[in-house]
Amino acid sequence: MTQITQQEQAIADDISQQYLTFIMASEEYGVDILSVQEIRGWEATTIIPNSPSHVKGVINLRGTIVPIIDLRQRFGIETLEYGATTVVIVVKVAIASDHKVIGIVVDAVSDVFSVNHGDVRNAPDFGDETDLGFIKGLTNTEDKMVILLDINKLLGSEILPEASQLSNLIHNIDAQQPQAVNE
Amino acid sequence: MEIDLSQFSQVFFEESLEGLASMESELLKLEVNEPDDESINTIFRAAHSIKGGSATFGFTQVADYTHLLETLLDEIRDGRRQMTTDHQDMLLLSVDLLRNMIDALMRKVDFADPLLAQLETRFTAALAQNSSESEEEQSVTESSSGESSPQNTTWIIDFQPGIDILRCGNDPSLMFNELRLLGELEVTLVDSTLPDFSDMDPEACYLNWQLALVTDKPLEQIKEVFEWVEDECTINYHQETDAPVKEQAEEAGTPANTEASPSTEVIAKPKAVTPAKTPEGGSIRVSIEKIDLLINMVGELVITQAMLGQIGQQDTIDEESLLSMKQGLEQLASHTRDLQESVMQIRMLPISFAFNRFPRLVRDIGQQLGKQVELILKGEDTELDKTVMEKIVDPMVHLVRNSLDHGLETPEVRVSKGKPEQGSITLNAFHQGGNIIIEIIDDGAGLDTQLIHKKAIDKGLVTEDEELSEDAIHQLIFKAGFSTAEAVSDLSGRGVGMDVVRRNIHELNGTIELKSTKDKGSRFTIRLPLTLAILDGQLVRVGQHTYVVPLVSIHESLQVEEQRINRISENHELVRLREEYLPVVKVFQEFGHDADFQEIRDGLVMVVDSNNEKIGLLVDELLSQQQVVIKSLEDNYSKVPGVSGATILGDGTVALIIDISGLVTLAGIANMKEHAA
After folding, report:
1. Where is the CheW-like domain (chain A) (predicted)?
2. Does B545 qualify as catalytic in the annotation?
C-alpha cells in the first residue's frame, strides 16, 4: 500500500535534488549538495575540553572556528585511523534560525547524483522509540542503496539514538535492502 | 513620485538624539544670568532642526512641541527675553520628554505622558508672560524698519482659530508677536462668535481676528507663522488692493481633517535629500579622516600585493628577488597591522559619548539629595570601542550614583569636617598599554570600614574572628547581596549591587579596583580592553594543548614548594602565598587532558583573578604573550564551560581562551573554600 502511494507521489512530485554521496564502513550516504560548502583533507584539530568523543575538535577555516565531527563515532561504527585519504565534508547546517558550519569526517567521497523525490523511500520503521528523523529516506543508484541524510536534523539535534543502537539500525536497514531492490 | 520618508526616519532619530544630547550639555553649561550667545544658538539650532525634521516626517507631536521650545529660544536669542532658571529647567525637562517621544517613535508605540501637557502649559505661560512688556518697544522698531523698505505690501489676514486652539497649547498672541517681526501689524478683534457668558467654556477660543500686516516679506514667510496651527484654523490671506488671493489652508477648520497635514508636505522638500541608512543594527558616524586613512592603507596594500605578485611570476628566484620578496612581505605585515588598527579605529569613539550623560545625572541627583557637587571630566577625547562604550555606561552610572548617594556628604557635614561645601566627582579616562582606564573619584566620606565589616559578618560573608585588612574589607562590597545603604532609597537598593557592576565589567574582560580613605574619598578604577575583539593574552601549555589566559587577570606565576601546599581533600589543594591561601585549579584535570605535571609542586601556578578572588591555575609551561583576535566558539559549536572563546595563532591553529570564572565553577571552588574555612 505505502509503495503505491509513494509512486503516485513520484508522479505528482517529480522534483529532483542533487546529492553528494560518501562512504562510511561500506555504506553509502547522501547529503543535499546545497548544504555542502567544501571538501577538505584531515588536519589536526584543537581539542575542545569535556566534549563528546565524536567531536574531534575545532579547526581554523579561513578565520572561522569550525567544529569537526566524526560521523563514524556519531553512528557508533568502529573508528578508523585518520590518514592522508580521510575526508572532511564541510556542511552548512540550519539550526533553528541559525546557520552553523560544521565539518564531518567520513571515509571517502563517492559521487554526485540527482534523485527524484519520487524515488525516495521511507526508512523502515523501527518502532516509536527510535527517532530516525535524520534519515530522509533510501534510494538506489544503479546497483547501490544510498541512505539520504537530513543534515540539519543529524547535526542539529541532540536527541540522536544511542550510538550503538544507531549502528545496529543502519545494519538492519542494510539487511532489509535486497528485498526492497527486488520489488 | 512618492518618496517613502520612513527610510530616512532613522537618520532623523539619530540626529535628533545627537541634537538633544548637545542641547542638554549646553543647557547644563549655561550660566543662566549671562547666557553665552553661542550656547543659546546651539540649543536653538538643535530645537530648530528637530522641529523641521519631525515635521518633515509627520511626527506632529514632536514638531508642535519643539515649536514651543524654538519660539522661547528664539526670543532669548534675540534678546527679547531674559533667560531664567525656570526656562533652563523647562528646557532640560523637554530634553527628557523629547528623548522619550523619539524613543516611542523608534519603537513605533504611542507616546502618552502627562508631562507633555504640563510642559506645554508651562511653555505657553512663559511665552505669554513677559512678551507684553517688550511689546511697545518692538512695534516701534519694527514699524520704522518696515517703512524704510520700498516694496511694502499690506496683507489682510482673516484668522479664525479653531475652538480648541488654546487647548493644544497654541496662543494666537504669540503668532501675532511673530507677525509683528515681519512688519507693521494691526490687529482687529472680531468677537461676533462670542457666546453668552453662561454658555462659555473658559478653555475654548471664540475669538477671530483680522490682521493687517504691512510688510516687504513674501507671503510664505507670513504663512510660516501659522504653519503649526494651519490644520485647526481657517486662514485667508489677501492683499489689500488686490482681489483676495486664493491662499487658504485647504478645508481647514474642520476637526476631522487633522490627520492630513498639508504643511508637512510643503516643508518636506528641502529635508528629503539626507542619505539613507539601514534602520536596523545601528550605525556609526565615522570621521572622513579615518576613512581616508583606510583608503590610503588599502592602496598601499594593493601596491605591495602587485609587487609580490610580480616576483611570484618569475620562474626562478635569484637572490635579488628573494630580497625584495622579503621586503615585500615585511611591508605586507606592517600594512596589515596598520590596516587592522585603522579598521579598529572606525569603531572607536571618544569617551565623551559616555561622559556626556553625567553632568545631567549629577545635577539631578545632587539636587534630589541636597548635595552640592561639581563634576569634573578628564580625558574626554580618549577613544574606546563603541561596543565597550555601550556596555560600560551602565556600570559607570551605577558607580557615579553610588558616589553621590553614599560617598559625598551633605554640605553641613562637609563643613563640619572642614571640607568645602561643594563636593566633587571626577571622571577620568586615559589609555595605559592596550587598556583604557576609567576612574571615578569622589572626595566624599570614603567607605565605612566598620560598617561594612559588621554587615559582612551579619550576612555570613566573613567570620567574626577573621582578621581582614582595610583593603580586603573594602573589596567586600563587590560581594553578591551586599549593599551599604542603610535604607533602601530611591537611588540605591534597586536590586543592582556592586557585584553586578563587577560582573558586567568582567564580562568585558575588564577589572575594577577600589581605593578608599576615610573622609578623603573613594576611587574606583575600571580597567578595560580597548575593544572586545582583541585581547592581550598569555599563552600557556597544558600537555600538548595551548590555551590563552587573559593577561589582565594574571597577577603572577610561580613554582610552589611542597611545604606551602595544603591538601584539603582528594581533589582540593590550597597554596599558601604570603598571607593568603589560594585554591588551585588543575587545568588538565578540569579539561580532561594529559599533562606533563600532575602535582602542584612540579608545575607552574599562575595566580589569577576570579571574581575578585585570587586562585591558582596549574599549567605546564608559560609560552609567549601576544594580542589575540577573539573568535566565537558558539557561532558554529556551542558554549563550552571554562572556555570563553577561541583565537587563531600565528601558525593557523586554533587556541581556546580560558574563562577563569567558568573554570572555577567547573572545579567547584566554592565548595573548596568552605572546606578551607
Report:
1. 16-160
2. no
